[in-house]
Amino acid sequence: MKPFDPRLLRYARAARGVLIIGAGLGLLRTCAVLAWAWCLAQAVTAAALPVMDGIPGVRGRIDEGAFDTDQLPWLMLGALVAVCARSIAGWGMDAVAARGAVRVKAQLRAAALDALDARSPQRDDGPGDAELATSLGRGLDALDGYFSGYIPQLLLTGVATPILILAVLLADPLSGLIVVVVFPIIPVFMILIGLATQAVQDRQWEQLQRLSSSFLDVVAGLATLRIFGRQGRQVARITRETDEYRSRTMSVLRVTFLSGFVLDLAGTFSIALVAVTVGTRLVSGEFPLGLGLFVLLLLPETFVPIRQVGAAFHASTEGLAAASRVFAIIEAADSRPNGAASSECGDARDARRSADGRQPGLSFDAVSVARGGRRVVGPVSFDVAPGEMVAMSGPSGAGKSTLVAVLLGFVEPIRGRIVAPGALAWSGQRPGLLHGSIAENVALGSDEPDRALARRALDAVGLEHLDLGLELGVAGAGVSGGQAQRIAVARALYRAWRLDCGALVLDEPSSALDSSSEALVCAALRAEADAGRAVLVVSHREAVHRAADRVVRIDASHPEPSIAGVDA
Length: 568
Hints:
The protein is of the alpha/beta class. It has helices spanning 7-11, 14-52, 59-62, 72-118, 129-141, 143-171, 173-182, 185-220, 222-227, 231-283, 289-315, 317-334, 400-408, 438-442, 451-460, 481-499, 515-530, 542-547; strands spanning 350-351, 362-371, 374-384, 389-393, 414-420, 424-427, 436-437, 471-472, 503-507, 534-538, 550-553, 562-565.
């Protein structure tokens, strides 16, 4: 696990501001530390001079370069100002990191949700719903500890440590040499401990994912479990998963505390080694008191950032683990081929206009789809001309919805060629209604919804009695299944009218409708075909077949479609 993942800078621009401003404040804090150590060391020396004045041979060893006692108030004032500047810089780093964490989480969530929105709705690979909810929820929330605790210490380590080591080296080359030799021991311990921490952290995260998935499965099937009286076993299973997660969390904490102890021990021994050499030379008179105190005051400040960055790293590993999974979601979307889908015989959707400027109809030319190395649909060839309504029929599993998904760019890879207008409107098997007003659901995707056009679309499918301002609940709660299906058809009509789409594609638009409502929907689709649009409808219903100009039947065992003419 990397101490800092550079992908944060790519996918969360707010992280750049945190690093730049934090580095500036870290430099200010480092200068304040140097000023504080120098002023305090000289103040102690100036205060000690009168006391040591009567001791023969001592004054000469301690007052080399020392300030007079008259300068003591100014030295104390300088130390106080340095302490205040150091405190303000430290507070500023924490505040910038905390605010940056909020913005970084929001940007990463937005990028991940955009990536999930861009991928195919029929894609069955990638993380499951429980893993996504955990990663984008609690996982990213753990970045608070990463930014508020780890990043400030990491910046201090990168900015302050080299400057402080250089200051010690210039003040006392021997002490600086000892620090340079001993200092790398701490990063080595951090690397070794980090490897152990990553292993236990990965196991804890995997257990959390299993616990989330188990809970989601139980909630989804709770009604069925209660009917058959099997809820007790699921309670026991979740209890076992929870105990396992508790055990692995304690393992992470145990490693964290042990690592903190090791880092503190290494830092303490390093400081003690330098302090002994400085104290010995002070006693023998080989080293001025003011310079010795300056070195001794700087030593803890030199080792503190690297020790704290190691301790803070363990507290932030959960957020880093979740962030790496979010990066994988984003990069999976970035790695998709441009366009709807790849094709060996041209673009999957060749969108163009005919020579006379009219939008073309739909054309499937030897289109086939393979999954897992096995062909599941095709090859299929048929056309839907402008001004024509074609119904596609066949047994369940023959691949009708898959062909529509290929047309929309949801499925890849394919062989063959599809010609389609530049813009098409469609409605799937599920209404896909959202929380909000009916007008917002009909005009979904429009920056500036046209209420008059939405009203016209609802009237066309027989929903003239529905109020555009009616608020729907989650998943369209508040309307019946048939009404929800007709609202989805109205949404497709709204898009076709608003964008002047050349084609209208619907998948089972009347499966939940009674005969009268179905007749209204068929009449609306027939009117769209008469207006010059290419209308393709996937349906098993005879009423739809009768309204269509032709019926294309696809058989699962004989993928080449048969075409039957049906009087409108």
